[in-house]
């Protein structure tokens, strides 16, 4: 099938690559000339496990092309995806300017029938706006071309995006037209073998499904962080509590890890946008507001533990080794990362940070540039040079089993702040280090 994809970010690039991998003819279009030129020359703009060889192989095979020319992309696509960003507007609602700009672009180039598929995460009712924008642009041209607008939200996880795309748990298709559903069924047939993964529904339900999924996951995280903070106050260990509740199949093991707060390009903005949609429709989303408030507070929690250890004002002049910068492991994405809040709090307190992340160093450099108070290090070990304390904020595998005896030698103040509960307090303390985790009331 001939596919065009607008937006070559995490979602567009991975989707396009996976569709090419199963034999479709894909043209990816982006307004970012540097990104497109890079991709045409084998430079992959993001880090995702398994993505690079797949992009290169499909590009070499001629099934995956990159362009900045929307006319070429629209002329190519019988299925046209919109996979551009939907960042938060000032009031927290989703900013649809990029999605609607693409809709108008499609309208101004469409010459033959197509199914337009919204893959960006967009508020309920957006498909109607996309349809209206395409229709208006067609009308301006005096053109009359059949098209459908379908909602097909994306559920891939950064860090496992290729795997998720190749083996999806479900493929949600929201459409009013049976022909459009059929077309997407054929497109996704290679990913829908062995058992049925396609859940087809009306457009609005599909649009809401994406927000409901992210809001549920964010709720689980904030719930556990709330429990962790209670555990800390009452002298209980949240890791014991986690095991006690996760074994209940109604609760389950997934997404019940307490930590330094959720970040990334999706949960924070999607929880906010859903709350805003609710409000605009006359419903106060009390739970969603609380999920967000708990997360905001949690992002400062590690710093509060540091203040508790050092005392107010005593972080001035300290050198902190920071392990992890990405918002989660296996990605270089730092959008809304908890590390960013911590860095700011540490700088405001007069501390210096020696930071290391296995994949996010370029991104950190791009965001902060050269600045006082930040030394970008070549390795986890390098970050420890001259450090007073260690903070771990991203749970990369390589941070999981440090030599605590060596840490004791390296860290002048002999203290570890573990923002992801990677370590057993007893192990750390046995090496003569002070240990602070999240919700580990027994050890604080
Ligand atoms: P991104 O910021 O990584 O990429 C968006 C791309 O769109 C950029 O390369 C940008 O240059 C391009 N773009 C903007 N305007 C354009 C236009 N008019 N024509 C062509 N390209 C244009 O975004 P992303 O992380 O891939 O997210 C895209 C959407 O998917 C968002 O709505 C997001 O909420 C949703 N989503 C993201 C994830 C994720 O893990 N990142 C997962 C599921 C859903």
Automatic annotation (TrEMBL):
Record-level Gene Ontology MF annotations: oxidoreductase activity
SUPFAM superfamilies given in the database record: 6-phosphogluconate dehydrogenase C-terminal domain-like, NAD(P)-binding Rossmann-fold domains, UDP-glucose/GDP-mannose dehydrogenase C-terminal domain
Keyword NAD: yes
Catalytic activity: UDP-alpha-D-glucose + 2 NAD(+) + H2O = UDP-alpha-D-glucuronate + 2 NADH + 3 H(+)
Family matches, as Gene3D superfamilies: Cytochrome c1, transmembrane anchor, C-terminal, NAD(P)-binding Rossmann-like Domain
EC number: 1.1.1.22
Pathway connected to this protein: Nucleotide-sugar biosynthesis; UDP-alpha-D-glucuronate biosynthesis; UDP-alpha-D-glucuronate from UDP-alpha-D-glucose: step 1/1
SMART domains: UDPG_MGDP_dh_C
Keyword terms: NAD, Oxidoreductase
Domain UDP-glucose/GDP-mannose dehydrogenase C-terminal, chain residue ranges per copy: 321-425
UniProt-listed Pfam families: UDPG_MGDP_dh, UDPG_MGDP_dh_C, UDPG_MGDP_dh_N
Class in the EC hierarchy, top level: oxidoreductase
Keyword presence, Ribonucleoprotein: no
InterPro entries assigned to the protein according to its UniProt record, in alphabetical order: 6-PGluconate_DH-like_C_sf, NAD(P)-bd_dom_sf, UDP-Glc/GDP-Man, UDP-Glc/GDP-Man_DH_C, UDP-Glc/GDP-Man_DH_C_sf, UDP-Glc/GDP-Man_DH_dimer, UDP-Glc/GDP-Man_DH_N, UDPglc_DH_bac
PANTHER family xrefs: UDP-GLUCOSE 6-DEHYDROGENASE TUAD
Assigned protein family: Belongs to the UDP-glucose/GDP-mannose dehydrogenase family.
Protein name: UDP-glucose 6-dehydrogenase
Species: Luteimonas notoginsengisoli
Lineage: Bacteria, Pseudomonadati, Pseudomonadota, Gammaproteobacteria, Lysobacterales
């Amino acid at each position: 099938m001939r596919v065009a994809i607008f937006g070559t970010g995490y979602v567009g690039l991975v989707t396009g690559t996976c569709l090419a991998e199963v034999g479709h003819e894909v043209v990816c279009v982006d307004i970012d000339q540097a990104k497109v030129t890079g991709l045409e020359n084998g430079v992959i703009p993001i880090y995702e496990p398994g993505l690079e060889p797949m992009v290169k192989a499909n590009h070499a095979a001629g099934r995956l092309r990159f362009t900045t020319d929307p006319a070429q992309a629209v002329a190519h696509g019988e299925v046209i995806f919109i996979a551009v960003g939907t960042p938060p507007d000032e009031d927290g609602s989703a900013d649809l300017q990029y999605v609607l700009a693409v809709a108008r672009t499609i309208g101004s180039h469409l010459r033959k029938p197509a199914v337009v598929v919204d893959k960006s995460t967009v508020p309920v009712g957006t498909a109607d706006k996309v349809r209206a924008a395409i229709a208006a642009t067609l009308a301006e041209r005096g053109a009359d071309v059949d098209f459908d607008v379908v909602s097909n939200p994306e559920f891939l996880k950064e860090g496992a995006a290729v795997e998720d795309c190749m083996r999806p748990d479900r493929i949600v298709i929201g459409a009013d037209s049976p022909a459009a559903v059929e077309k997407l069924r054929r497109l996704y047939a290679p990913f829908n073998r062995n058992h049925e993964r396609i859940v087809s529904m009306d457009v609005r339900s599909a649009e809401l499904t994406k927000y409901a999924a992210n809001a549920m996951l964010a709720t689980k995280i904030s719930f556990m962080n709330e429990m962790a903070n209670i555990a800390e106050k009452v002298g209980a260990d949240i890791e014991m509590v986690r095991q006690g509740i996760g074994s209940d199949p109604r609760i389950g093991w997934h997404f019940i890890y307490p930590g330094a707060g959720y970040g990334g390009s999706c949960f924070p903005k999607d929880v906010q946008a859903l709350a805003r949609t609710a409000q605009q429709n006359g419903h106060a989303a009390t739970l969603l507001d609380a999920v967000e408030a708990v997360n905001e507070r949690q992002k400062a929690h590690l710093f509060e533990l540091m203040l508790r250890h050092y005392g107010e004002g005593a972080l001035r002049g300290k050198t902190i080794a920071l392990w992890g910068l990405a918002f989660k492991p296996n990605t270089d994405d730092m959008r809304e990362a908890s590390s960013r809040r911590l860095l700011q709090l540490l700088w405001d307190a007069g501390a210096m940070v020696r930071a290391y992340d296995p994949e996010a160093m370029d991104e950190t450099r791009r965001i902060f540039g050269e600045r006082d108070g930040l030394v970008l290090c070549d390795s986890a070990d390098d970050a420890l040079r001259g450090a007073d304390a260690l903070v771990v904020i991203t749970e990369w595998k390589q941070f999981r089993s440090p030599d605590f005896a060596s840490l004791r030698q390296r860290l002048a103040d002999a203290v570890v702040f573990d923002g992801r509960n990677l370590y057993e307090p007893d192990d750390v303390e046995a090496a003569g280090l002070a240990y602070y985790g999240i919700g580990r009331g027994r050890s604080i």
